[in-house]
Amino acid sequence: MTHPYADLPDHAFWRRAVAETGAELLPVAGEFLRLAPEDRVMTAGSCFAQHVGRYLEVAGFTFLQTERPHPVILPEVAEQAGYGRFTARYGNVYTSLQLLQLIERAYGRFEPREAAWQIADGRLVDPFRPTIQPGGFGSEEELREDRARHLACVRAALETADVFAFTLGLTETWVARADGAAFPICPGIAGGRFDPAAHAFRNLRAGEVRAQLEQAIELLRTTNPRLRVVLTVSPVPLTATASGHHVLAASTYSKSVLRVAAQEVVETLDDVFYFPSYELVTGPQAGGRWFAPNLREVTSEGVAHVMSAFLRAAADRVITRSPLPAIRTPDPTQAAIAGWVEAMCDEALLDRAGDAG
Question: pTM for the full model?
Answer without folding.
Answer: 0.90
